[in-house]
Amino acid sequence: MHGAVPLLDDYLSHSAERLGDKIALVCGEHRLTYDELETRSSAVARHLVTSGVAPGDRVMIFADNTVETVVSFWAVLKASAVVCVVNPLTKSDKLGYLLNDCLPAALITDKHLQPVFAEPARNCPSLRRLIVSGQVDDAELRGLPHAVRWDEAAAGHGKAPPRRRIDIDLAAIIYTSGSTGEPKGVMLTHRNMMTACTSIASYLELGEDDVILNVLPLAFDYGLYQMIMAFRTGARLVLERSFAFPAQILAIIERERVTGFPGVPTIFAALSDLRTLKANDFASIRYVTNTAAALPLKHIRLLQELFAAARIYSMYGLTECKRCTYLPPDDLARKPLSVGIAIPNTEMWIVDEDDRRVGPNVVGQLVIRGATVMKGYWGKPEATAKKLKPGPLPGEQVLYTGDYCRMDEEGYLYFVGRSDEIIKSRGEKVAPREVENVLMEIPGVREAAVVGVPDDLLGQAVKAFVVMEQGTIMGEKQLRMECQKRLENFMIPKSIQIVSSLPMTDTGKLKKMALS
After folding, report:
1. What's residue 292's pLDDT?
2. Of 515, 458, 468, nearest in space to 492 by CA
3. N or C terminus: fewer CB in 10 A for the chain?
């Protein structure tokens, strides 16, 4: 690695030194080697610096999963700046909020997004450079502030600019989805992100021979880390814009001999719907990962059927610390409802409402300690103070996740629910996840979501939204009868609404605010 202490961008540079001619990135029709990625990112980094981007400045990338997005990510780091990748589905008003929140010195984007970014960019006082990829004509370029074409920014050869930061400096700001309120920028240092990559890559046993398929947005930390970990180990990243066409993904898996497949439940469910699916379609896949709360048993069985030869990793984490736990595949049959044990180099415990550590099987708030814990929320000291609190060592801060969990006698974690989602009904606390798990086990139920709604008598009433399998005929009365067999009275939904689909974020997370 370059320098006495490696930084995040050294992952790409080091792999380029060792494996320069190897294909690092497959994106549509493009196939780039490590040398090509290194050269292009260094050129863009030099352009950013000559455009006035200083150490610690933010650079926002507002683009799809493209070659330009990948190159830009590493270029920003090489320029000693802080990278902020924003989902290309973001609307203009929200983009304006994000621009005026992190105040970037530069914005890298694509021509087809001009209707979204043009006005917010003009109103961003900090912007000194706007780099636009795609076919943009001279008149359009003149109408944009400080704008140049991507080809101009990426021109030339030579080394990256001199290093002007250390490992405790910020590497990235990743905005939370806003599914529970206003988006917050999670500040992550080089050390934060490198620690997370090292830990995850170790238990996944990543190596140079791996081929990782990423259909998740690079603006989503789960998707972003697929790229970082691939280039850290010298693996190949196969980058797709989305999972809109599952049949095409099958062809890509076969053509590229994909070995690693990170996904979310909506992706796996879509795969299972393909009538052309054959048992050997996933023969090359060595591992599959899912991150969220523990998968319902129905989804676990689905993954085991789809990926019979693969190791299945159920994981749990937050943007604020990347990853908390993973369930070793060998424990999946023994503890299917657990989200696993702490990832390497991370410590966790459960506290009650008085901040006292609790024993096995007692529900409380999860606390995370380790080098993956964020530096805080950008520009939001009050929100930061609610999440980061003093740890065991003087001056140390640990992360109070806001998630209710319990831990068994062996140290395996069980996710109960977010503290702000817990339903208080009839004086009792109801974890939506417990009710959802019961609903998911009812034959014919495809998806389920449970929320609390105001109720004059109960305080909050339990309400369920259910998506049925195609062709299944079952009404609210039958679903409630099934719940009565398996749930305590105060946990039984007062109402069950059958819907055609559940509202999801761009990254496959359930938007519960849209239900409640």
Report:
1. 62
2. 458
3. N
pTM > 0.70: yes
**Which position has the token pair 């507002």?**
62
Print the domain residue range for 491: 423-514
Nearest to 377, CA basis, from 388, 366, 367, 392: 388
Rg of the chain over Cα atoms, rounded to whole angstroms, equals 23
H runs (alpha helix) in 307-465: 381-387, 432-440
Residue 465 sits in a domain whose CATH number is 3.30.300.30
Distances 367 to 351, 356, 370, 397, 423 between C-alpha atoms, Å: 7, 11, 10, 11, 21
Residues 474 and 393 in one domain: no
Among 385, 386, 452, residue whose Cα is nearest residue 425: 452
Q: Provide the b/e sequence for 354-393 (b: ≥16 CB within 10 Å).
A: eeeeeeeeebbbbbbbbbbbbbbbbebeeebeebbeebee
CA separation for the pair 505, 503 (Å, rounded): 7
Rounded to the nearest 5 degrees, what angle is found at the Cα of 474, between the Cα atoms of 469 and 476?
115
61-87: b (≥16 Cβ within 10 Å) or e: bbbbbbbbbbbbbbbbbbbbbbbbbbb
Q: Do 107 and 138 belong to one domain?
A: yes
Which alpha helices (DSSP H) does 317-441 contain, by range? 381-387, 432-440
Type of residue at 359: G
**Residues 440, 335 share a domain:** no
Give me the number of domains the chain comprises. 3
Q: Which pLDDT score, from 0 to 100, does residue 295 have?
A: 74
pLDDT tens digits, one per residue of 397-434: 999 999 999 999 999 999 888 877 888 787 677 888 88
Same domain, 355 and 438: no
* 130 and 199 fall within a common domain: no
- Verify that 159 and 279 share a domain, yes or no: no
Using 50, 70 and 90 to split pLDDT, how confident is the model at 2?
very low
Q: What is the arithmetic mean of pLDDT over 14-26?
A: 98
Spatial separation of the C-alpha atoms in residues 163 and 121, rounded to whole Å: 28
Q: What is the mean pLDDT of the chain?
A: 92
Which of 21-35, 230-244, 320-334, 427-441 shows the lowest mean pLDDT across its residues? Answer: 427-441
* Distance (Å, whole) CA 470 – CA 342: 38
